[in-house]
Amino acid sequence: MERDNVKEELMTIIKPFVPDGESISLAENQDLINDLKINSAHIVDIVLDIEDKFDINIEDDVIGEMNTVADAVDVVMRKTA
d(Cα 31, Cα 71) in Å, to the nearest integer? Predict the structure, then answer.
């Protein structure tokens, strides 16, 4: 799967969890918690949605690596390779 396609799918998954997500433009360098104000409970929901969408398993220690949108894209790219 191409990186742009993964990013697009992730944006679709992440956007509903962003306060005022409809009016925000997501960029790869944005931090999920600090910039996008996604709380930790929603991070778990996002990970579950990513696992379902891409049919992958993301281990707990890998979740800690997913700080930015780009990090999340990288994890999906690795897991689907």
Answer: 9
